[in-house]
Amino acid sequence: MTPKSGDTVRVHYRGTLSDGTEFDSSAGRDPLEFEVGAGQVIPGFDEAVAGLEVGQSTTVTIAACDAYGERVDEAVQDFPREAFGEDVPEVGWTVELQAPDGSRMAATIVGVGDEVVTLDFNHPLAGEELTFEIELVGVDAGGSGIILP
Asked: What domains, with CATH codes, occur in the chain?
């Protein structure tokens, strides 16, 4: 059974960067479950799963524009170190900030100076071409129950 938009699928996957470094995997965990076409995963991943039958596997390489987007230089910004209060920020920390409209944004600290902390608001995988090994392990077609091989 090939999943269609609106079906819930379960997949096992392994994600690697172009240099072969693994950045994520479902190995040792329950399969990833999501609704096809609902925007719950990156578009290229969604499209690859939609073409599989239960029990089939595929390997797909997804361009940055169909994954987490290209890196945006303007998304790297300096903030006063005093904004961090008594905490001594460290490069590599992930912080969450609240925007004036109340939304929350995650950023990675990429630089710490005496007066300024540099934050990168790009997704950590922005600008990266991603390769996924994907196995479709189940489909729930419109609430009829997960179909397994």
From this structure: 8-68+126-147 (3.10.50.40), 73-120 (2.40.10.330)
